[in-house]
Design a protein that fits this description.
- Keywords: Signal.
- This is DUF1176 domain-containing protein.
- With 219 residues, this protein is α+β, with helices and mostly antiparallel strands.
- It is built from three helices and 13 strands.
- Strand 8 and strand 9 form a beta hairpin.
- The chain starts with a helix and ends in an 11-residue tail after the last strand.
- The N terminus is likely disordered.
């Protein structure tokens, strides 16, 4: 009888020990995960606008860590892209942005909104759909900022000969009407050009935003 009780006691003791180890390991794992989350949240750098409205960063060590992480989440190799085109930080209509070039099969800029400097937000653009109408894309093409005109030009195309190229032209405007005052990228024009084997052809406008009738404007 005593032997049986002793065996039961040993068994219970082993179960308690295993449970204690499991709970300790789980707690350690949670602490490690929480610490990792805290480290990522804390791993950000100040963005040195310093009153500037347009500047570039061409050294990887100078790229804010939160911007690098945001680009990496979109499968963008920041270091590789910077060898072609530096990061460009802009302030337009009180909106802070960074343009990051990415070398995919078809290279394109990504644009991140820096309203919350710790958590850059990927911007999506209205874009000509394949057959008809418009869609949205985070990869609008190679972006050129035309400051004097207040426009962003995004070009897409290939190096094939012959081929065609598209150019979407955007401006920053307030598109949410009475629901929000947030500025957004507004598509104002779409151009196309043919690329022959002897050089580029002139751009032709295939779509241009009309002025809305007065009755459609919400005030």
């Amino acid at each position: 009888m005593r032997s049986a009780l002793k065996g039961v006691s040993v068994g219970i003791g082993l179960l308690m020990l295993v449970a204690a180890v499991h709970l300790t390991s789980a707690a350690f794992g949670e602490d490690k995960q929480s610490a990792g989350s805290r480290d990522e949240t804390a791993a950000f750098d100040p963005i040195p606008f310093g009153g500037r409205t347009d500047f570039q960063v061409s050294a990887l060590a100078e790229v804010p860590r939160q911007v690098a992480r945001a680009a990496q989440r979109e499968n963008c190799d920041v270091e590789k892209g910077m060898k072609e085109i530096p990061l460009r930080f802009l302030v337009e209509r009180e909106r802070r942005l960074v343009l990051v070039y990415c070398q995919w099969i078809l290279g394109s800029h990504l644009v991140f909104d820096l309203k919350d400097a710790r958590h850059p937000k990927l911007v999506v653009f209205p874009f000509l759909a394949q057959n008809t109408g418009f869609g949205t894309t985070p990869r609008p093409g190679l972006i050129t900022w035309r400051k004097e005109a207040g426009e962003f030009e995004a070009e897409t195309g290939t190096d094939m000969c012959p081929s065609s190229r598209l150019r979407h032209v955007y401006r920053l405007g307030r598109t949410e009407g009475f629901t929000s005052g947030t500025s957004s990228f507004v598509l104002v024009r779409v151009d196309v050009t043919a690329r022959g084997c002897g050089g580029n052809q002139p751009w032709s406008t295939v779509w241009q935003a009309p002025n809305w009738p007065e009755a459609m404007i919400v005030r």
